[in-house]
Amino acid sequence: MARARKLSDELVVSMGRTAPNRQIPVIVRYSPNRVVMRAKGPALPGVSESYNYRLAPLAHMHATPQALQSLSRDPEIVRIYRDLPVRALMDTASRIVRVPEVLRMGVDGSGVRIAVIDTGVDLHHPDFHGRIAEAVDLVGEGPNDQNGHGTHCAGVALGSGIASAGRYRGIAPGALLYAAKALHRNGQGMMSDVMAGIEWAVEHKVQIISLSLGGPGSSDGHDALSDICDAAVAAGVVVVVAAGNDGPGSSTIGSPGAARRVITVGATDDTDTIASFSSRGPTADNRVKPDVVAPGHRIAAARARNTELGTPVDPYYTELSGTSMATPLVAGVCALILAREPGLSPEQVKARLMNTAIDLQQHPCLQGRGRVDALRAVWNDKGRAPSRPQPQPQPQKPAPQAPSGCLTSITASLRRALYRRRR
Amino acid sequence: MPKVDPDLRQEWKDGENRTFSLILRVTGDLEARAEVLEEIGCQVRRRFRLTSSISVRCTGETALALTRRSWVTKVERDSALRVFGG
């Protein structure tokens, strides 16, 4: 087999986007006639081996782009694949909070204006095509996203998923995006620049602001950023804020998560367990926060061009974890609510989310009122909540545009088999 | 409620010539207050109408003088923020 054809399409793309000193997770398939059953990879510089499969001539390893070129010259190697995530994706998170049911009823957030104040947005990402209403740069780097965080957050809230045939569709794929770049390419910034982003959003009459950022420590919600968030709510805007990633200790919610009138969001995983990293209440003045929780663990959504943040899935998507991801998910649910009932006040939207959340039987300072449920929230179903969902096996889905011979499903099966054997 | 956190005030005293990024809450006309702040040596960065606030950069010495103005009701650090995902 020619060298170029030994490398899968996804891997070739990853190699082109990966720095020379960074390693890429790969699965190597050896010739079945190979005599030596130990993978050769680790003998090469730039390769570290993490696993040899016993049921098939396969090995999982990490290798730099140059090392992969060397491996592709090995006559005993038949093919090298980019290791792809096979679970806990955006489609899973969306299903957990019952968004597909809402979308099937024709409610997709169309026309609702959402501001994402973050590291900017990839203005050319196909998932936002035709729906970026405004973009502003408040830090002097240009509005494009050179970090990847802002693009991912926007993708969770309202990405169309068109570059994944709908697999990584956001929560409100009809909503309009107002993107304010208030954080630098390193993912950090100043409180005053974020405050400027909030004023910009209010002046542009957005209906929802999503803030996946904050400061360290515990706050009483009386700092300048918390106050301007509360002022935005008073001006009629729903403000959704990340609780922070400083858990599992208590009193780890800082500014602006401690603001009184915002919707503060903690994170769960795909089994409805509170993520260990999710910041906990109470606030510094002993109020209960967060207000709700939502999936924020291993979420795949839009990836900004020329960025490597998180675990890239393919050129258009990457996987991130954090209350940053749970927050735009809730902002998207708010857009679904407002699409159906545009006259609701921010207080009514917050109450709706909290009153219809699924009680995870956790302390209020971990879960708030519970995990958001889009179907109940949009239809204001405050009836008896369904019992806490049990983790269910996810159906295996074909990887998008998988080339023939892709090992994703094979390796998943092998891993499951090995896991059973070890137990 | 003090106008300034005592620790921040001490930082100004210890570094009168150092530059600090601050957010001021003010009463009265925001533009007029911003003009006065520039006259006394502050670099005015942004004005916030929603909360009648102004972000500035100034020396510790100027910051100490600011707190003596009756229309400055609160001074706090323009803190660093970070994203919560990775």
Structural overview:
- The complex is a heterodimer of chains A (423) and B (86).
- With 423 residues, chain A is an alpha/beta fold.
- Chain A is 28% helix and 19% strand.
- Chain A has helices at 3-6, 9-17, 65-71, 90-96, 99-104, 149-158, 191-203, 224-234, 323-340, 346-355, 364-367, 374-378, 408-422; strands at residues 24-30, 47-52, 58-63, 77-82, 113-118, 132-137, 176-181, 188-190, 208-211, 213-214, 238-242, 263-268, 292-295, 299-302, 311-314, 317-320.
- In chain A, strands 6-7-5-9-11-12-13 form a seven-stranded parallel beta sheet, with helices on both faces.
- The longest helix of chain A is centred in the last third of the chain and has 18 residues, at 323-340.
- Chain A is globular and about 70 Å long.
- Residues 389-423 of chain A have low confidence and may be disordered.
- Chain B contains three helices and five strands.
- Chain B has a four-stranded antiparallel beta sheet with strand order 2-3-1-4.
- The longest helix of chain B has 10 residues, at 30-39.
- The interface between A and B is medium-sized, with 46 and 21 residues.
Which strand order spans the largest sheet of chain B, edge to edge or round the barrel? 2-3-1-4
Helix content of chain A: 25-40%
Low-confidence stretches of chain B: none
How much strand of chain B? 35-45%
Q: Which shape of chain A, going by the Cα principal axes?
A: globular
Helices and strands of chain A, in order, run as HHEEEHEHHEEHEEHEEHEEEEEEHHHHH
CATH topology of chain B: Alpha-Beta Plaits
**Shape annotation of chain B:** globular
Q: Approximately what portion of the residues of chain A adopt beta-strand conformation? A: 15-25%
Rg of chain A to the nearest angstrom? 22 Å
Radius of gyration of chain B: 13 Å
Give the total of beta strands of chain B: 5
Mean residue pLDDT of chain A: 86
> What is the CATH architecture assignment of chain B?
2-Layer Sandwich
What portion of residues of chain B is helical? 25-40%
Supply the CATH superfamily name of chain B. Peptidase S8 propeptide/proteinase inhibitor I9
Distance between the termini of chain B: 37 Å
Based on the structure, what is the oligomeric state of the protein chains? Answer: heterodimer
Strands of chain A, total number:
16
